[in-house]
Specification:
With 74 residues, this protein is α+β, with helices and mostly antiparallel strands. The protein has one domain. It contains 1 helix and 4 strands, in the order βββαβ. A hairpin with a 5-residue loop joins β1 and β2.
Length: 74
Amino acid sequence: MQPRLIVQSSTTGRFLVPGPEFPHSPEWVVSLRDAGAGVVSDLDQALGLIEEYAEIDDRCTVIDLDRLGTINDY
């Protein structure tokens, strides 16, 4: 099973999601519901989003959605 990863700003709480023309138009969304399309299955892809599109002073976290609510939760 592939991981379901999402990028979240620790500074603003928003989610960085690939746009329809990934990787050319990612966007920040407030709602996790709106971030559904932003789930990626590759850690390198998630880290690439941060490197390319996060502000330099923005602290971002890659969250594995399948860890939430488990014994391995954050």
